[in-house]
Amino acid sequence: MLEKRLTVFILLGVNIALILFILLRSGSEAVPTDRAATVPLQIVHLAALDYKPDTLILNDFEIPPDLVNLYPQGGEFATTLVAEHATHGRHALRFEKKNEANIEVATINFPRNWQGYHRIEFDVYNGDSTPGTIWLRVGSQYDSKRFYAKSQKFARAFSLNPGANTVVVPLDDIRRAFGQLPQNKSLHFNIPAKGGERLYLDFVRLVRDDR
């Protein structure tokens, strides 16, 4: 993150230098002062708009409000922020089933503009000694409870080996399912009845291929 901030500062410094250069030239040329200053300021503004970090965090479950933004559904289970198996920051989200049932949580609290990114990635630690399963479902619109997606055109199951796993979902697959990237997006993480008894989810993110 420090490298990215330095890159932004360097870009701003270059554009400020352009402003000073054009202002100095305006003294010898008949260029209106306001015009001389406006062009580089537009460059600064566009540079800020175009800048995208290589990795954009959607949810990394670092603070209790991250749990408030989760909407559970299904069998009896508990979600807890824990230090175990965190891959980004200090916490991961632990799913612990109380019985064999299908469970699901949805999250909608993340940046809406996914343009310029190429895939979703998230880390899952399977605490069982046997393979597990997690589904990712993407909804475009949801009802007043902000959980049940009215339009879920993308749903995919991923096998989980015992231990650490990283799930990768190309955004092109989601785009093809909807015709375009949906604007009002909700992510649903579903663990089927036989999907695993204890899973740890962390670092849900968007990633650019040209990083």
Structural summary, described in words:
The protein has 211 residues and is α+β, with helices and mostly antiparallel strands. It folds into two domains: 2-50; 55-207, Galactose-binding lectin (Jelly Rolls, Sandwich), CATH 2.60.120. 26% of the residues lie in helices and 36% in strands. It is built from four helices and eleven strands, in the order ααβαββββββββαββ. It has helices at residues 2-26, 33-50, 65-68, 171-178, and strands at residues 55-59, 70-74, 77-82, 92-97, 103-107, 119-126, 132-139, 152-160, 163-170, 186-191, 198-207. Strands 1, 3, 4, 6, 9 and 11 form a six-stranded antiparallel β-sheet that branches. A five-stranded antiparallel β-sheet has the order 2-5-10-7-8. Helix 1 (2-26) packs antiparallel against helix 2. Residues 4-9 and 28-39 have low confidence and may be disordered.
The CATH C-level name of the largest domain is Mainly Beta
Radius of gyration: 22 Å
Global shape:
globular
Number of strands: 11
Strand content: 35-45%
Structural class: alpha+beta
- CATH second-level architecture of the largest domain: Sandwich
CATH topology of the largest domain: Jelly Rolls
Order of helices and strands: HHEHEEEEEEEEHEE
Helix count equals 4
Précis, in short:
Helix content is 26%, strand content 36%.
Using brief descriptors, characterize the structure shown.
211 residues; 26% helix; Jelly Rolls; alpha+beta; 4 helices
How would the blueprint of this fold be written?
Elements: H1 2-26, H2 33-50, E1 55-59, H3 65-68, E2 70-74, E3 77-82, E4 92-97, E5 103-107, E6 119-126, E7 132-139, E8 152-160, E9 163-170, H4 171-178, E10 186-191, E11 198-207
Antiparallel strand pairs: 1-11, 2-5, 3-4, 4-11, 5-10, 6-9, 6-11, 7-8, 7-10
